[in-house]
Amino acid sequence: MPPHDLRRPFKRAAISDQQRRRELSLQRQAQNRLDAQHQARCLAQTILSLQNDSAEPEPEFEFVPQPEEQAQDFDVRQAARLRGSEARRWFAKQLMLPEWMIDVPDRLNTDWYVCARPAGKRCFVVSSNGTTVSRLRNGSMLHRFPSALPNGSRTNNSSRSGQSYCILDCIFHEPDQTYYVIDMVCWAGMSLYECTAEFRFFWLNSKLVESGACNDPSPYHRYRFRTILIYDCDQEGLKAAYTGSMPYMKDGLLFYNKHAHYQSGNTPLVLVWKDENCSQYVLDTDSKGQVPEQQQLVLELLDDGRLATSDDPPVIFGCLDRDFIQKTGLEAGNLLRFAINEGGLYFADGKLERADLHYLGKPNRSRAFADSYSKVMFQYTARHSPLRIEHLFASISSLNEQENAISDTDMVG
């Protein structure tokens, strides 16, 4: 097969409908009118009060509900009492989780931002009632500490109401003990769920510095917070994010659609991409930290024996025989680990038709969800036909050439 012509935009053979789902996500968020303020309030309450699996009790915090919250459903009143896998599953749904970049998005050079993702622990940070709490994606507590965030310590709590809270989407970078803020969900009680990424990043960069959260640690501000550099995804921006020096260890690149709202769960409007030059871990490793010879994936067992990804709707990778399920004592809802055999994955008309899988057992209990389809496909293509940084640069160049050609045509006309 001849090498790909890097002068043209990179288009791999159809293996997903990621572009179509990006367009649908933008349409849905334009039609969505959920109570964003209520959603942020509920999340803050749960992060503060969610029970740990450890036996050590946590102090209780006063969180005054609004009148409309008194009769709310599961998310409001019961999530804080969940334990174990139920708590992990609920909490993991609250973060906005990027899909893996399978193909190059349309209008990458005009409609997208790019940044270098810090390596570390993804978490929510909430400040309220004079304290600050960070929780990992599985719901377990990372730190409880005073901070300079709104209502984040006793020293900056006196002039604020009980509803003045803050929710930040962060990555905790252990080498320098710093929270790198990759998104802002709520600031001083104002929800940003339905704000575009363009506005959220502007608000984040202005408000975080004003608060003093970026100052050096002190007894009243235990950890430093820092923003990350966000670039327009043109040639210069992509190069800066990919090759530029950062104060943290990189773990790939993040791409944000400028019009995307903060959407809980998997979203095709935020993408992650990696190669060996910007991430230490491109291919998944096993429990020993080694890259297995065969790609592994985690799927969820459904009631009818089908094996599904974490997507909504899920992608089905196969089905287990009922006798095998009974023999092994598996139950619906179990997460199961498989290896992809030599038969690999087979596609027809851009859709997965069959997968040659070998059952390995159950994954670590800390897992909350099955793998997403985009992660499985990124890992699969990384082993066979990776999407390279040259393809991203070539697509941007091609888009620029098309725009210039259209501009020249308009001028002639």
UniProtKB/TrEMBL annotation:
InterPro entries in the record: Snurportin-1, Snurportin1_C
Q: Where is the Snurportin-1 m3G cap-binding domain?
A: 94-271
Where does this polypeptide localize? Cytoplasm; Nucleus
Answer whether the UniProt record assigns the keyword RNA-binding to this protein. Answer: yes
Q: Which UniProt keywords apply?
A: Cytoplasm, Nucleus, RNA-binding, Transport
Query: What do the Gene Ontology cellular component annotations say?
Result: cytoplasm; nucleus
Recorded family membership: Belongs to the snurportin family.
The name this protein goes by in its record: Snurportin-1
